[in-house]
């Protein structure tokens, strides 16, 4: 299982971090620009990010936008660890993404199936298809490495407070469903990382490199606890 305790989110116009600042990042997650004309510049940034060391994930434009393939055609390259999709609208959309990856891997001489996939389930519609989506992807590939849930975005979609019982139930459902497929879940609010760890989330995403070491420590399971769990299983 991949380590996803501390993920650094990088916006398309943010300054590139230096190697020392990402020492405690389990992965760098690069957000795409909104403007298609900026895809070329994004590709240059991806090349620079690969030099920093941690695995690089490319967040793709929303699948229903029709821009996922054009974006990946310019930015996917040897060395990119995986792609991250936000709120898929259907299982077919995820299958489409897998087909795009297969096509581009062949073109770019990347080992077939090597490019990992991570999926965010922040919208109620996406959350509703989560179990079916994970089952479908498990049957067709081993690309899936982690899933994400941003409780604040989920709450905003519903128009309820982030600490409402409805959001708490959704958070628990995400953790339980991911556990059934042996996948770690990444939380989207580093300020609530302690709460997320108690709920069973295994990682957090942040746009501030100063959070990374704290997140790694907070979301690490001590070796003694891991050994005790194995003995009791």
Write down the domain tally.
1
Put simply, the count of helices is: 10
Q: CATH-wise, what's the superfamily?
A: Phosphoenolpyruvate-binding domains
**Main sheet attributes: strand count, strand direction, barrel closure:** 8 strands, parallel, barrel
| CATH classification, class level | Alpha Beta
CATH topology: TIM Barrel
| Strand order in the largest sheet | 1-2-3-4-5-6-7-8
Q: Extract low-pLDDT stretches.
A: 223-231
Short key terms for the protein model shown above:
disordered C terminus, 10 helices, eight-stranded parallel barrel, 8 strands, alpha/beta, 15% strand, 233 residues, TIM Barrel, 44% helix
What does this structure look like?
- It is a single chain.
- The protein is α/β, with parallel strands linked by helices and 233 residues long.
- It has a single domain (6-232), classed as Phosphoenolpyruvate-binding domains (TIM Barrel, Alpha-Beta Barrel).
- It is 44% helix and 15% strand.
- The protein is built from 10 helices and 8 strands.
- It has helices spanning 39-50, 68-75, 91-108, 124-128, 130-140, 151-158, 165-180, 193-199, 212-218, 223-232, and strands at residues 6-10, 27-30, 56-59, 82-86, 116-120, 144-149, 185-187, 203-206.
- Strands 1-2-3-4-5-6-7-8 form an 8-stranded parallel barrel, surrounded by 5 helices.
- Strand 4 (82-86), helix 3 (91-108) and strand 5 form a beta-alpha-beta unit.
- Helix 2 packs parallel to helix 3.
- The longest helix has 18 residues, at 91-108.
- It is globular and about 45 Å long.
- The protein starts with 5 loop residues before the first strand and ends with a helix.
């Amino acid at each position: 299982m991949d380590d996803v305790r501390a993920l650094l989110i990088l916006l398309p116009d943010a300054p590139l971090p230096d190697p020392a600042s990402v020492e405690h990042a389990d992965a760098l997650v690069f957000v795409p620009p909104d403007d298609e004309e900026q895809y070329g510049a994004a590709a240059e940034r991806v090349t620079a990010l690969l030099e920093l060391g941690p695995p690089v994930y490319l967040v793709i434009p929303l699948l229903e936008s029709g821009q996922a393939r054009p974006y990946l055609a310019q930015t996917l390259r040897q060395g990119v660890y995986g792609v991250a999709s936000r709120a898929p609208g259907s299982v077919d959309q995820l299958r489409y993404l897998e087909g795009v990856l297969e096509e581009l891997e062949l073109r770019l001489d990347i080992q077939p199936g090597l490019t990992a996939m991570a999926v965010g389930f922040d919208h109620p519609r996406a959350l509703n298809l989560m179990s079916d989506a994970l089952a479908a992807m498990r049957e067709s590939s081993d690309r899936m490495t982690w899933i994400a849930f941003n409780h604040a975005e989920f709450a905003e979609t519903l128009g309820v407070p982030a600490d409402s019982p409805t959001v708490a139930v959704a958070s628990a459902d995400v953790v339980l469903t991911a556990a059934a497929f042996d996948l770690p879940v990444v939380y989207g609010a580093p300020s609530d990382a302690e709460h997320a760890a108690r709920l069973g989330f295994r990682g957090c995403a942040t746009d501030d490199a100063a959070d990374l070491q704290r997140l790694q420590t907070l979301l690490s399971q001590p070796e003694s606890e891991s050994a005790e769990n194995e003995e009791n299983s």
